[in-house]
């Protein structure tokens, strides 16, 4: 556990290019694993989630080779017949857990080999029941304790039709859409209610299309997936991560300066790619310059009422900004944030309150009244990378703020603190705590 203190901040107008999108990389990695031939991915974010995803497909028989720091070659899996027992560790990645659980449903064994899927303690308490139930309907055998990881799984996915509940996470649907491309027969998925984070389903459908796969979206609740499809390996440059961009756009505004993100992924279907429009509503000036995005401070930010159902991962970024906006910010339609790495409604607000923020919440919304004088104190990331990165932004206005468990950023953005340094923030590890831990261990 490492505490990090925000020592100082002197942010001038800056520009930067962000690492590749973990959202796209997660999809490309699993699709490459079930494609014929060798996929080459460049601009791959080398974070804990993506390293775990590459480890997972490797355990299933894909060949993975790094060509340089950010380029990787993936040769697809040749046989879905298990030659041995396999254990897959998803670490903290919800996306991987849901995608790989569906994918491993394709594997079978005539001699009783099984795949065990596990994850960190945090991941073992996040929902998996929906994936388990729909896979069982499609012919897969699963052993688990009430549907949580670790689970033992043996396929194959025969296909047919299934109901799926995607009201807590769209990842259950995305995983199933990908895996069923290779099912023995055609599959019809019927959603029992609308999917949350719906834009991520579109992200998945686009990625499937890129690899030559076909899914027919009959209507917003029904998907038809022809079985036994042959996917084609691709060469892909992974576009920049729109959620990682949000921290720097917010940093520029808090510093009353400007941020230019080079090669911003404007045409991404991911909801969070529209975060600049939210900032514009708060009073920021937003410019599109060919492939680049510039967000500039103009006048004090204003609180807004905003439905963030399709932008779940930038809610903590918005909450940090809202603390310094004039008036009230109401963030609605976010009940599914309770099932992230932390409970991003309760945990986020409780940390903000520690600093004296005027913040309240219920099961599907957060309200923050900005402009309250905050006190530099210790807040915890609750081992949630997005809380660590967003809470650190408050340090731009509040020197001496300390983030406990700051190492959580490794999940999606291991170089985050170095990036902050590049734009003019000085942060330091609080060594006392590290030595306390060491002496406590001896
Ligand atoms: O499919 C994906 O890549 C993701 C979907 C979203 O999750 P939910 O659908 O659970 O909201 C998002 O919050 C998560 O970070 C990544
Ligand atoms: C929720 C997230 O990821 P996952 O669900 O894949 O753990 C995230 O990156 O904010």
TrEMBL record:
Record-annotated active site: 313
Subunit comment: Monomer.
Keyword terms of this UniProt record: Amino-acid biosynthesis, Aromatic amino acid biosynthesis, Cytoplasm, Transferase
Keyword Amino-acid biosynthesis listed: yes
Primary localization: cytoplasm
Function per UniProt: Catalyzes the transfer of the enolpyruvyl moiety of phosphoenolpyruvate (PEP) to the 5-hydroxyl of shikimate-3-phosphate (S3P) to produce enolpyruvyl shikimate-3-phosphate and inorganic phosphate.
Catalytic activity: 3-phosphoshikimate + phosphoenolpyruvate = 5-O-(1-carboxyvinyl)-3-phosphoshikimate + phosphate
Domain Enolpyruvate transferase: 15-419
The protein's enzyme class: transferase
One of the protein's GO biological processes: chorismate biosynthetic process
Glycoprotein in keyword set: no
Similarity-based family: Belongs to the EPSP synthase family.
NCBIfam families, sorted: aroA
Protein name as it appears in the record: 3-phosphoshikimate 1-carboxyvinyltransferase
Gene Ontology CC: cytoplasm
EC number: 2.5.1.19
GO molecular function, one term: 3-phosphoshikimate 1-carboxyvinyltransferase activity
UniProt source species: Kangiella koreensis (strain DSM 16069 / JCM 12317 / KCTC 12182 / SW-125)
A Pfam family assignment: EPSP_synthase
Subcellular location: Cytoplasm
Pathway: Metabolic intermediate biosynthesis; chorismate biosynthesis; chorismate from D-erythrose 4-phosphate and phosphoenolpyruvate: step 6/7
Binding-site positions, phosphoenolpyruvate: 22, 94, 126, 171, 344, 386, 411
């Amino acid at each position: 556990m490492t505490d990090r203190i925000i020592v100082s901040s002197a942010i001038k107008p800056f520009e930067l290019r962000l690492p590749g999108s973990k959202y796209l990389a997660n999809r490309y990695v699993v699709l490459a694993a079930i494609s014929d031939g060798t996929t080459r991915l460049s601009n791959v974010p080398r974070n804990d989630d993506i390293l775990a995803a590459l480890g997972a497909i490797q355990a299933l028989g894909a060949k993975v080779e790094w060509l340089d720091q950010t380029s990787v070659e993936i040769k697809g899996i040749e046989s879905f017949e298990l030659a041995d027992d396999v254990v897959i560790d998803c670490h903290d990645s919800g996306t991987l857990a849901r995608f790989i659980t569906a994918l491993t449903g394709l594997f079978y064994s005539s001699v009783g080999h099984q795949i065990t899927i596990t994850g960190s303690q945090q991941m073992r308490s996040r929902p998996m029941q929906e994936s388990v139930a729909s896979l069982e309907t499609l012919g897969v055998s699963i052993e688990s304790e009430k549907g949580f990881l670790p689970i033992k799984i043996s396929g194959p996915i025969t296909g047919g039709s299934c109901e799926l509940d995607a009201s807590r996470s769209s990842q259950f649907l995305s995983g199933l859409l990908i895996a069923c491309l290779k099912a023995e027969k055609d599959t019809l998925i019927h959603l029992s209610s609308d999917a949350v984070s719906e834009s991520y389903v579109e992200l998945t459908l686009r990625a499937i299309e890129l690899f030559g796969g076909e899914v027919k979206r009959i209507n917003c609740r029904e998907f038809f997936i022809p079985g036994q499809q042959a996917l084609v390996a691709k060469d892909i440059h992974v576009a920049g991560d729109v959620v990682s961009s949000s921290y720097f756009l917010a940093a520029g505004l808090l510093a009353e300066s400007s941020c230019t993100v080079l090669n911003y992924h404007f045409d991404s279907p991911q909801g969070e790619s529209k975060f600049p429009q939210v900032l514009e509503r708060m009073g920021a000036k937003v410019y599109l310059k060919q492939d680049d995005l510039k967000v500039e401070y103009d006048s004090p930010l204003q609180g807004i009422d905003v439905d963030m159902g399709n932008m779940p991962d930038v809610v903590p970024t918005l909450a940090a900004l809202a603390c310094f906006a004039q008036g009230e910010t109401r963030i609605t339609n976010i009940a599914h944030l309770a099932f992230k790495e932390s409970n991003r409604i309760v945990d986020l607000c409780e940390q903000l309150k520690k600093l004296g923020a005027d913040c309240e919440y219920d099961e599907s919304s957060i309200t923050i009244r900005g402009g309250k004088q905050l006190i530099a104190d210790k807040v915890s990331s609750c081992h949630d990378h997005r809380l660590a990165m967003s809470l650190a932004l408050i340090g731009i206005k509040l020197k001496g703020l300390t983030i406990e468990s700051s190492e959580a950023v490794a999940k999606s953005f291991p170089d985050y603190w170095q990036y902050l340094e590049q734009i003019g923030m000085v942060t330091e590890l609080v060594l006392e705590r590290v030595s306390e831990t060491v002496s406590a261990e001896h």
